[in-house]
Amino acid sequence: MLYLQTFLGFCITIIASIIAAWLFRVLLVRLVGHSTAKFIRTAPLTASFGMLVICMYILCAIFAPLIAPYGEAEILGGGFEPWSSTHLLGTDNLGRDVFTRLIYGARNTVGIAFLITALAFFVGTLLGLYAALKGGIIDQITSRLVDVLMAIPSLIFSLLMLTIFGTSVLSLVIVIAAIDSTRVFRIARAVALTIVHLDYIEAAKLRGERTRYLITREILPNALAPLAAEFGLRFCFVFLMISALSFLGLGLQPPTADWGSMVRDNADLISFGDITPLIPAGAIALLTIAVNFVVDWFLHKASGLKD
Amino acid sequence: MSNTNNPKYAISNEVAHGETKAKAQHLQADFMAGAISRRDFISTALALGVSLGGATAVVKQAQAATPKSGGRLRQGITGGATSDVLDPGQILDAYMINVCMGQLRPCMTKIMPDGSTEGDICSGWQASNGGKTWKFDVRKGVEFHNGKDLTSNDVVDSIRHHLGEDSGSGGSGVVAGIKTIKTDGKHGVIIELKEGDGDLPTLLSDYHLNICPSNGEGGIDWQSGIGAGPYQLVEHNPGVRTLTKKFANYWNTGNEAWFDEVETLGIGDPTARLSALATNAVDAINSVPPKTAARLKNMRDVQTLISTGNKQATMPMLCDVKPFDDINVRNALKYIINRQEMLDKVFFGYGELGNDNPIGPANIFRATTDELPQRAYDPERAKHYLQKAGLSKLSVQFHAADTGFPGAVDAGALMRESAKAAGIDIEVIREPNDGYWSNVWMVKPWSACFWSGRPTENWMFSQVYLSTADWNDTHWKNDRFDMLLRAGKAETNQAKRRDIYVEMQQIVHEDGGLALPVFQSDIMGYRTSMHVPDQIANNWELDGHHACRRWWQV
Amino acid sequence: MLVKRLALGVLTLILLSLLIFLSVEALPGDLAEAILGQQATPENTAAIRRELGLDLPPWTRYLHWLGGVLQGDFGNSLALRKPIAELIAPRLANTLFLTLYTACIAVPIALILGMAASLFRNSYFDRISNITALSAISMPEFFVGYVMIYFFAISGYFPSMASINAGTPFLEKLYLCFLPALTLTLVVTAHMMRMTRAAIINVLALPYIEMARLKGVKSQRIITAHALPNAIAPIVNVVALNLAYLITGVVIVEIVFVFPGLGQLMVDGVKFRDVPVVQATALIFASAYVGLNLLADIISTISNPRLMRQR
Asked: B3 — phi, psi (to 5°)?
């Protein structure tokens, strides 16, 4: 009986998301200008679902204080109160509203993760493409440096760095972005290496184009697809990294709500079949899936393949 | 603390009244004493109108109460590290305390389940000269695992291992009061103290002070793990697994230590520990998170074991750093802690309220609530103290990590909210667990800390609250308190000692830099295949880390 | 070229050892304070420092250590006062075992799923495998581990503790380590699978594939015979990256499943400021990483002759 209910619930959720995605696409097409609308109309349902979710998360993040029924750190009642109309998802062990913290968590987690990923990609891609293009000694030096940094397990390295520099948000962003950018560098360089030996790059070089032009106009557009795929995954790895750090007792400062720590704080309840920790984990998973759906669509577009 | 999960079944409760009831009680008593056979017991009980189930329950109880030799005790314990050495001076956490003190190398004395101190390696002691000179009798017929007899020489070298500037031992603070130690024949040890201390025998039960074989050059052989304990070392894989087996010539065989083998596993992650217990990979675990303790009870074949001793969550403030140098600020902060809420939410009710007094439930001279009323959450009072300090608002930082005490960060979050009512703004800063003791505790002006507590008032006070103590983590200095501490040590009249210690507790409570919100219970889990005594020791987890001696397999 | 790369690899390792040494030095506190914890006093910490030579200047200690390493001696663990090799050998064996075990499951699954997804792209198969893979990697590792324990260990199918040692028979090892290997498979598969899919799709857009298609080559054959060889470079790279991750980055899985591997050793080393242990584990991790990447580069170069031309 329970299984049947779960299955039915699952089906309804799927159908509802498909409908929501479709409606969202229609809405978007109505809202935006003609040329963009044409582009959006080509989005498959998965991509528009992804966009819907991302928009919802962004709205949550921006308007968190308006949407959330209570304060982020406000203690409202007893610990572990069940789901009710006053506390939609119950309360956590200290009696803080879980729904509220989930919403604020969007702001903190998504904001920080996006910042970190963007920073990592900016630095990593630029250096990677540059190294691949220049080759020779510059390539060797940057690659060796990146090798050194990458050869240290990222979790342990960030543990070291955060212990040295403290666990403020700023040092968290810089440390994780620095570590992540080495991974991006590697992918960007590998992708670019296959491109720089293509004839049209050689031709552009012979034309005497400047490095900046070569990187932004010639290599980047052609390296975008694998990089975009990597972005989607990196973005979610950053969440996981923050969550793993809070597993080891680092991570964001309390009472700031972030999903990673929310999973961590209640993770042991899962051994008793309690689904509390699944909620923030689900929030991470949903966003990851959504981001990657959109990325896939771009990937598909960029590849120029017809369906 | 008694084990409430193991209620005694009495057949007399089944029969109605009067004479039959008395008969039933006698019958059960006779049977438990072994005066009548099982068959006779059951038939007579049935004749008295007792149910078969009831009679069988008593039989089972009787069987369980008879120690049974054999089997293996598998323990999943926290605090193991790959850097764990067998050096008694470097024992730091539960895992090594259990292995070294509990299994391999007992100390001179041990703490009994009722909190009293008894001889372990020593068989007795006499104090003279106002508690300054002590003579300990080393038990005769005690043998090391390598077959060597244990003599006074081994004891002297073992204690000396922790003495002096060069010892590098974590136990150096415990034995700091010892002036000289020397042998007195083969089975006598004489200890000369710098000043009188009636608690010396209890101090010698400290987990660092393992008795190891002398290496003949004034040092000890700790490398081999040889001791005179009930179990001898088979395999030690630091931080991972330690296997020991029953020592055939253990001096106290027949009275304790029933297992053939003891396997100790280092399991740091709480969920992994619980899963190991639930899947019957271990028989007993320590440190069950309070959050999951209630659910653990619902598991099959698993029981929780709760003991509330002196383990205390503390929040020391450095009394020589602004703003904590002002007693009014300290008092204001003590009043904005909502202790009951903290106990309920952070410790899930597993514990006792603290009263800014380090003397806990396991101490004998603990001040009563009449002598020292319980401090409660009172923002108005806190405001009043702030005014007295000449402040209208106060902003302070509280540094915490779960190393300080489990749940310290959550406790800080609660405090932050409850302090708002008094206009006090507390910023909770989560510090890394790594390096917490050297970088945060006693360094930051207000931090989280825990003490496993000490069995005697004098020990606790002189290690942490005496103005010159190494671990004076509040940097608190009170001349009257220091004077009383000295007086209490030398005093032999118990009533007078009590008066002295109660006054000292009042001074700490009123003037000290210590905020002590909660005494935490130790929560442990064990499988019902283990027999656990009704009364377990509360000085350490797992029956004072003597589970391997006092428990047996049913 | 190979010799040059190897020499560069050694240089990388030396640089790394210096970086690690400086980082551990920069950490607040030292071994003496760490092993004494709350019981530290100025006297006993000073005594330990003297005994272990921690009172010497950092440069002396580093050069002394480096000198030893160049002669093949990794020194003693400061806390255990035992040769590092004794400490590391069993754990290294365990870690390699778990890595191979996971790789044997994860790599074939990832490649096959990735190729199939690119073949049937935008079909239901593609989407479902995509969503599943993404969901699996968007859970924190410890959480996946707990879920595995809940489903497979509490019910008694597999043990929740993978406490293996050198004497454990091979088949029993496979059984004991099943849950950690499964957890890690879930963690690494998605990344490799998506990269495989993306790389192949990227190649599929190139003119020569179009040509093959126009010639009437079957789509299955286009992928295996025409697209795959040109997509090998990014795929091999991402596989190498993930294998390196399996060796170096699984400390959390080790904690959850009580697995005695290298990661835990390194974290303990950092925690206790036991510099030689941290150095030795870091060097092992780094060599694994450098070696795997070298291998990946060699394979990519062989697969793509254009890369060969430059060197």
From this structure: -90, 100
Q: Is the dihedral of CA C300, C306, C307, C309 positive or negative?
A: positive
B292, B431, B434 member nearest A272 (Cβ): B292
B184-220 pLDDT tens trace: 999 999 999 998 888 899 999 999 999 999 998 889 9
Distance from the B268 Cα atom to the nearest Cα atom in chain C, whole angstroms:
7
DSSP per position, C160-216 = S-----TTS-HHHHHHHTHHHHHHHHHHHHHHHHHHHHHHHHHHHTSHHHHHHHHTT
DSSP, res B2: B
pLDDT per position as a tens digit, B63-109: 667 888 999 999 999 988 888 889 999 888 899 999 999 999 999 99
Cα A68 to Cα A72, A96, A280: the distances in Å are 8, 12, 16
| Residue in the structure block whose two tokens are 């240089």 | C11
Nearest CB partner across the interface for C260, out of B169, B240, B271: B240
- In angstroms, the CA C290 to CA A252 distance is 32
- Measured in angstroms, the CA of C120 and the nearest CA of chain A are apart by 11
Q: Which residues of C touch A194 (CB under 8 A)?
A: 233-234, 304, 306-307
Q: For residue A75, which residues of chain B lie inside 8 Å, CB to CB?
A: 413-414, 417-418
pTM tops 0.90, yes or no: no
Give the phi and the psi of residue C9 in degrees, each rounded to 5.
-60, -45
Q: What is the DSSP letter of C158?
A: S
Q: Compute the distance between CA of residue B194 and CA of residue B468 in angstroms, rounded to an integer.
A: 15
C-alpha closest to that of A154 among A254, A241, A69, A246: A241
ipTM of the complex: 0.82
- Mutation choice for C interface testing from A53, A140, A156 by most C CBs within 10 A: A156
Per CB-CB distance under 8 Å, the chain B contacts of A255 are: 413, 416, 428
* A–C CB contacts, 8 A cutoff, strictly below: 177
* Residue C195 Rama label (left phi>0; alpha psi -120 to 50; beta): alpha
Q: Enumerate residues 253 to 292 of chain A having a beta carbon within 8 A of any beta carbon in chain B.
A: 253-255, 267-272, 274
Which chain C residues are Cβ-neighbours of A150 within 8 angstroms? 289
Between CA B388 and CA B396, with CA B391 as vertex, the angle to 5 degrees is: 115
